[in-house]
Structures are given as structure tokens and as C-alpha cells.
Specification:
4 helices, Cyclic Phosphodiesterase, Chain: A, 36% strand, 5-stranded antiparallel β-sheet, alpha+beta, globular
């Protein structure tokens, strides 16, 4: 078996509850009606998640090391609340390439958890992320389209006024595997890591 066949694409994420994902999907459908056809590749319902860290290709034999490092993170963080609300885009609303839903609530706790996750696995990463973490839920990616179509996407985003998508308690994070296929990436849970009980 060659090295390529034993390399696994991994990322660390927070699960988004189904009721929140349903409202995010409603927003996707609302935007789809007002944007040029096939101008955006929308994130499918099952894959709407909050990424903490993307590890890329990891040798399968080294996965237990990542799990051990992530287990140590859990002792340092309590559960917290998040809320999904607002719509934004990278690089900007006037030049949208990635369409996202913003997050509110205990964002500082989220950022602290992400920083700890990043620090715990950075020693193994060949090309560690250097950009500041900007928490968001990716709703879709704009395809290569003509300038006038891109303007219509931008206008649709600016005109859209979706309701808040809901809130939830984050009490764990997960190590995920991403398998690429002709039908897109397929995600599966390899391990979950419970946070400490929420402080009252």
C-alpha cells in the first residue's frame, strides 16, 4: 500500500444543530432565487459546520497523535453558546467569493478554543495557517462568472434580510475526515471531544 492511499484529509469542527442548518438552507434557497443560475456552489445541508482547523492530508498512522493532543485541549475549555446571524462575504460584499453566515454569542471563547486547537496540532502541519481566525459558517462559494453576474450576486446579498438562524450550546468538537469523490467531499466523524460543563 503506497503512502497516498494511507493519507487521510482531516479537519476539526463544531457541529451545527439541524434546526440551525435548516434556517441556513432556507437562506441559501432564498438567495438562489435572486441570483444568476448556477452562479454559486452552495454548501450542502449535511456539511454545514464550523471549522476550527483544517489539517489537510495526514498519514493514517499519525491520527492517534492528533487525537491525544486534542484530548488535552478539552480540559482547558468549558461549553459556550453561539448564535448564527447576519450574512457576509469574502473578499467583500461587493466582490463576493465566499458567502457566509456570521456568528455571535461567546465568540471570545470560540476563538480561545480555536487558538488552542491550532497550537496543539501546529507541530505536525507542513503549511500552518497564518491568517487570523475569522469564525463563520460557509454557505456557498461563487463560481467563476462574468462581471455582470457577479454584480447581481452582490446585489442579491445586499438586498437579502434573513432572520437570525438560531443559537445553540457548544459542548464538544470533533475530528473529521473528508473524502473527495466525483460527487463532492464526504465528511465523517473520527472522534469527538467533550468540553467541560458550562459555567453557571
Amino acid at each position: 500500500m503506497d503512502a497516498k492511499s494511507t493519507t487521510v484529509r482531516l479537519f476539526v469542527s463544531i457541529h451545527v444543530p439541524e434546526v440551525v442548518r435548516e434556517k441556513l438552507r432556507d437562506a441559501q434557497r432564498q438567495f438562489e432565487k435572486t441570483m444568476p443560475e448556477d452562479s454559486v456552489r452552495w454548501t450542502i445541508f449535511e456539511q454545514l459546520h464550523l471549522t476550527l482547523e483544517f489539517m489537510g492530508g495526514v498519514p493514517a498512522a499519525e491520527i492517534p497523535l492528533r487525537e491525544q493532543a486534542l484530548t488535552k485541549v478539552t480540559a482547558r475549555h468549558c461549553s459556550f453558546h453561539l448564535a448564527a446571524e447576519s450574512i457576509g462575504a469574502f473578499s467583500s460584499m461587493r466582490n463576493p467569493r465566499v458567502i457566509w453566515a456570521g456568528l455571535a454569542g461567546d465568540v471570545n471563547r470560540l476563538k480561545a478554543l480555536q487558538a488552542d486547537v491550532h497550537a496543539s496540532v501546529m507541530q505536525w502541519e507542513r503549511e500552518p495557517e497564518t491568517r487570523a481566525y475569522r469564525p463563520h459558517l460557509t454557505l456557498g462559494r461563487v463560481r467563476p462568472i462574468k462581471p455582470h453576474e457577479l454584480r447581481k450576486v452582490s446585489q442579491a446579498l445586499a438586498a437579502g434580510t434573513p432572520e437570525p438562524f438560531g443559537e445553540w450550546e457548544v459542548d464538544e468538537f470533533a475530528l473529521m475526515q473528508s473524502k473527495l469523490s466525483p460527487h463532492g467531499a464526504q465528511h465523517s466523524v473520527l472522534a469527538t471531544f467533550p468540553l467541560q460543563p458550562l459555567e453557571r
